[in-house]
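Minutes, project check-in
Item: structure for the 407-residue chain
Input as provided by the requester:
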Amino acid sequence: MLAARVLAPVLAGRSLGEALDLLAGEPAAARAAARDAAYGVLRGGGRGEFILGRLMARPLGHGEAQALLLAALYRLETRPGAEPMVVDQAVAAAGELAGGAFKGVVNGVLRNFLRQRERLLAELRRDDAAHFQHPAWWLARLRRAYREDWPRIVAAGNGPPPMTLRVNARRISVDAYLGELRAAGIEAKPVGGAGLRLATPLPVDRLPGFAEGWVSVQDAGAQRAAGLLDPVAGARVLDACAAPGGKTAHLLERADLDMLALDIDAARARRIEDNLGRLGLAADVRVGDCLAADRWWDGRPFDAILADAPCSASGVARRHPDIKRLRRESDIRKFARAQAAILDALWPLLKPGGKLLYATCSVFVEENDAQIDAFLARWTDARRLVQERWLPNDDNDGFYYALLRKT
């Protein structure tokens, strides 16, 4: 029932993050179970709706009841041998909705699915969007851009993400922290220069030294940003879209910097301060719009700028599976326009010889290669030093980086 309570607002257009707030105050085990079901349904894209569309003449006119059916289908597909229990629990939950008006429908639909499962799954495999669990327009873009790699990108987006830690070099070495994990019975392997990927995700309060700032949770692909920008000690650096502060912190863990961390949202800016405080780091954290430099910039140019631009988040869909449902193809053009505006606003703030790192967590070309090609055509004093595409896999999410130098 809790999973349906979370899913219903997402089906109506709200973000999963907002919907998960509805679980506040529930027991930890119940929250975890509801979260697992909600993520599973949403990672499935239109899979559940495809099945329900063949079992029902029309969707139920009740958000939570429809969400309950989707959650129950997910449980039936992922808990072999527990089918009677799953059906009984779903019917009991339906009894709490609309005076029990949907109990018979829920019972009938789920039992019909079990009787027709093989036929339904065979039909599903013939429908691209349902089978690959991504919107058709999304699949078309991936096929055009990644003729060989698109199946792997899709498969990664349908599974659970890895949990990777970034070791705070100011507090402990990677080798020493790996030893702490092993002593605690936690299996991990090194990824990148400062990362450790856990064999099994776990709550951060079980991580040795987390409260003391020894480590942060950050994907291995996201950790690449600090190494690419690599400002020297004492450099004046701007992180222009900084929240929640992971890349800001990583830069500060590597060198003493004159760091300005900027974000347009006050609540998100407070998260930057909280994260830096736990890690024992300091930066000038401000609330401001990077497109309106006249409101926060003191006129001193920066040696280095990180432009971690707002994007479609198509490279991190497994972490934010609601975007498969909420994102529209027209959004890509809107993001591309916003990214171009951010680049054009930040470039004049960079001193000659300085470096700007453009970053997205998107796998769509329009937000990445094409964005930088267009920027280089507009700004003749810009040179591309490095370009990297990180496609999602077992070790990292999907990212794009372009390191630019002002001549």
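Outcome recorded: The mean pLDDT is 95.
No further action items on this chain.
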